[in-house]
Amino acid sequence: MAGAPSPYSSEARIKQAMAMLLNIVNDASVPRNIRRAATEALNNLRDETLTPGVRAANAIGALDAVSQDPNMPIHTRVRIWNVITLLETIKD
Asked: Is residue 1 predicted with pLDDT exceeding 70?
């Protein structure tokens, strides 16, 4: 059955995570170091030379350390955790 990818496919979840990260990157209330980590995670997700699982793992790595930053606004921390949770479902 051809057509749009399943909403549960790895690529669909990566696209959803990328949209969530773009919202963080474009939010001026988010500290610069956290926007930088979100940008790094976005770049990891865009690297199509790697498998979806590796892309997701690299992005999680970029976000994990910054997710503990005490200067992060609470709403941003929740958004980061949501992205990490979504990416953790992607396996090769």
From this structure: no
